[in-house]
Amino acid sequence: MPLTFASADAPSIPLHLLDADTFPSWSETLAEGQRAWLGANGFTGAAGQLCLLPGAGGIAQAAVAGMTRGKARDRKRFELATIAAKLPEGTYHLETDLAGDALEEQALGWLLGSYRFDRYKKAAPMKARLKAPEGVDAARLEAIAAGESLTRDLINTPASDMGPEALESAFKELTAQFDASMNVVRGDALLEQNYPMIHTVGRASTQAPRLLEMRWGARGPKLTLVGKGVCFDTGGLNLKPGASMGLMKKDMGGAATVMGLAHMIMALDLPLQLRVLIPAVENAVAGNAFRPQDVLTSRKGLTVEINNTDAEGRLVLADALALADEESVDCIVSMATLTGAARVALGPDIAPFYATDPNDAAALSAAGAKVADPVWQMPFHDPYEGMIEPAIADLDNAPAGGFAGSITAALFLKRFVEHNPKYLHFDIYGWQPSPSPARPKGGVGQGARALLEALPKVLNL
């Protein structure tokens, strides 16, 4: 089912959104029989309540739902999606005093609540459809929902069907959809064209490592997105325990998120020049796997001591970022499911980000709050630079001690962005551990909507 609004011309049922405070006065406008019906069904306007008002022939004349208007701790993102899932089949329009950002959030939540991952198992579609409320940019919300759906599909697909080859195919479909150009460097050609760390990380897999590149747009500022595409991460020779390996199909969540964001940007035809780079690999175990204590030479020429083969994401990103930095652009952004330290610090819901420009950081923080895509700034803390400098190489991919793991990973990546002053890095989780409104358990985009909202300020669009 496409994540789109119903036709504006379709007959629709009014859905009244109330709360416990506004319900009593609103109910006074109803006929006595309708008030009695609501009372008999115990409707008080409490959050999550839903009641249908019957009309002629037993067809619903209207629907009434309770929403939270209280303390911030009691409110849930995309709360309307929970109501939408309970509604019987039909087309609805909202009757509410919600406006602006709050109305857009709930309308988007309805669309995202329609998402189903049904590649391997049939899933009943959501029965209710919504007409776009007045005052929202319906086309923009539909483009955002489509991009988020792409991200979720890519993350949810297991590595048996989403290895480097399949990720390349999905990338090709995206480029074809928007008439973008595409280039791929595979296998030993990575060595020939100087992407040594991408090759080293992925060479033990049965599917060759590769670097995917897309270009789109011929006008406006230049934006380069770099996404970590580790399609499965065993940990390499530093093999992960089973409990830690269980979710590693999502280790390409950075790639999935930048592809979803790219979809949004191109669908909205934003006036910018977009480049997307994805190092697509599988970190596998074989006789030619890279080893702890190996020293690798990166595309940039910096040497890297391998102190843990499970810290491979920063290695493949480093070569891609070095390539991105060889062009003069207005902003470089990397997104990656990079560190467990980020989850310990902020949990699964909030995406930490790093910014070299304080104005970009402020714009992102404000945008995340505006569009209900929570992000939190973390520091490029220069005094920690010594932690990523081992004795025998320029850089250490896994500093000992365990302190500041997300920050040291970000500092590592920043070493490969030397010529462009504006760099943003997101250390995302890419997974919804338990169902929430509009976000079923499984793959989820993080940071993309916040960045999309912030782009006009980041790029001076």
**What is the CATH architecture term of the largest domain?**
3-Layer(aba) Sandwich
Tell me the major beta sheet.
Answer: 9 strands, mixed
Number of distinct beta strands: 19
User: Which fold does the CATH topology of the largest domain refer to?
Assistant: Aminopeptidase
Number of H/I helices? 15
Q: How much beta, percentage-wise?
A: 15-25%
Ends: how far apart? 33 Å
Radius of gyration: 24 Å
Q: Which structural class matches the secondary elements? A: alpha/beta
Counting structural domains, the number is 2
| Mean pLDDT reading | 96
Q: Percent of residues in helical segments?
A: 25-40%
CATH superfamily (homologous) name of the largest domain: Zn peptidases
CATH class category name of the largest domain: Alpha Beta
pLDDT < 50 stretches: none
Please tell me what the overall shape is.
Answer: elongated
Core attributes:
alpha/beta, Leucine Aminopeptidase, subunit E, domain 1, 461 residues, 15 helices, five-stranded mixed beta sheet
Describe the protein.
The chain is elongated and about 85 Å long. The protein folds into two domains: 13-127, Leucine Aminopeptidase, subunit E, domain 1 (3-Layer(aba) Sandwich); 141-458, Aminopeptidase (3-Layer(aba) Sandwich), CATH 3.40.630. Helix content is 33%, strand content 20%. With 461 residues, it is α/β, with parallel strands linked by helices. The protein has helices spanning 23-27, 32-40, 80-86, 100-113, 138-156, 164-177, 189-192, 196-202, 242-245, 253-267, 313-325, 340-346, 358-370, 405-414, 448-458, and strands at residues 13-18, 50-54, 60-66, 90-95, 128-130, 181-186, 210-216, 222-227, 229-233, 273-283, 295-297, 303-305, 331-336, 351-355, 375-377, 395-396, 423-427, 431-432, 442-443. The chain is built from 15 helices and 19 strands. It starts with 12 loop residues before the first strand and ends with a helix. Pfam families: Peptidase_M17, Peptidase_M17_N_1. Residues 308-315 form the Cytosol aminopeptidase domain. Keywords: Aminopeptidase, Hydrolase, Manganese, Protease.
